[in-house]
Specification:
alpha/beta, 12 strands, 11 helices, TIM Barrel, eight-stranded parallel β-barrel, about 20% strand, about 325 residues, about 40% helix
């Protein structure tokens, strides 16, 4: 039918009508809160480039996660930041490392919260790269071996889901094999499958103290122009044993996310990364846009593109605003 019989504005004319015909809904169940854990006690250190975000010692992390669980946030993902770093990232798989202690504490003291862990070496190495290096070259296979042991140490501490974010070839299969042979068949893998070499990671690198000491990560993270390659990466990680797949960052790569949704019938996550979060807050602080509305548009856009899970630093804030 053509105008005037068809008038698209009829069902937009009031909030109740808009709510009735809304196609995409964001809920607390969609959200995962990333958290940074450091050594010490009583630490709740603000992150300057990420307003509202902190680095927590384990005791403060437990308090934060109890609040998140009470708000209905279903999961957190942990990034450990140890005091001591070395070339091989020794603290990454240390039985008494900061991440391992954090996982154990959360599983013992916080009910109803799934605990995910980031599996990477960049937070633990003194050079800031995501693997073992030889000179200035990041070595794939030795890095995969270290990552598999790191994932295993997280599983032993009680992690529900391990999430390899390094982008080394073959790491999902190696982690799945190592977990299974050690009796952790039920620990799930969320693969950072299509992780792009992005400018949007800057605030995270401040929080995790993981800026590369030399070079950059373009030799292992994906080249931003490549959409078809992203689909190959997603498919390979699924074939290697991933239980869920992730696209990172989220909003600059909504086309990849939407195509992944069409291609794969598995849980799909997107990471609304530190730079995406920070730029909304920075613009809002200057009065350049309505920060709350802009953040909601970003999150609903990620959901509309096909994400089942959204890793976002705004999870706590939005859990207070959203229903289940």
């Amino acid at each position: 039918m053509s105008f005037p019989r068809t008038r698209m504005r009829r069902l937009r004319s009031s909030e109740v009508l808009r709510r009735m015909v809304r196609e995409t809904r964001l809920s607390r169940d969609d959200l995962v809160q990333p958290l940074f854990v450091v050594e010490g006690s009583g630490v709740r250190e603000p992150i300057a480039s990420m307003p509202g975000q902190h680095r927590f010692s384990v005791d403060q992390l437990v308090l934060e996660c109890k609040e998140l669980a009470d708000l209905g946030v279903p999961a957190v993902i942990l990034f450990g930041v140890p005091d001591a770093k070395d070339a091989r990232g020794s603290q990454a798989d240390a039985a008494n490392g900061v991440t391992q202690r954090a996982v154990a504490a959360l599983k013992a003291q916080v009910n109803g919260l799934a605990v995910m862990t980031d599996v990477c070496l960049c937070e633990y190495t003194d050079h800031g790269h995501c693997g073992v290096v030889d000179g200035e070259q990041v070595l794939n296979d030795p890095s995969v071996a270290r990552l598999a042991e790191t994932a295993l140490s997280h599983a032993r501490a009680g992690a529900d889901i391990v999430a390899p974010s390094d982008m080394m070839d073959g790491r999902v299969g190696a982690i799945r094999t190592r977990l299974d042979e050690c009796g952790f068949e039920d620990v799930a893998i969320l693969a950072y499958a299509a992780k792009f070499a992005s400018a949007y990671y800057g605030p995270f690198r401040e929080a995790a103290e993981s800026t590369p000491a030399f070079g950059d990560r373009r030799a292992y993270q994906m080249d931003p122009p490549n959409r078809r390659e992203a689909l190959r990466e997603l498919r390979l990680d699924l074939e290697e044993g991933a239980d869920a797949l992730m696209v990172k960052p989220a909003t600059p790569y909504l086309d990849v996310l939407a195509e992944a949704r069409r291609a794969f019938d598995v849980p799909l996550a997107a990471y609304h990364v530190s730079g995406e979060y920070a730029m909304v807050h920075a613009a809002a602080q200057r009065g350049w846009l309505d920060g709350e509305r802009a953040m909601h548009e970003a999150l609903i856009g990620i959901k509309r593109a096909g994400a089942d899970l959204i890793l976002t630093y705004a999870a706590k804030e939005w859990a207070k605003k959203l229903g289940t």
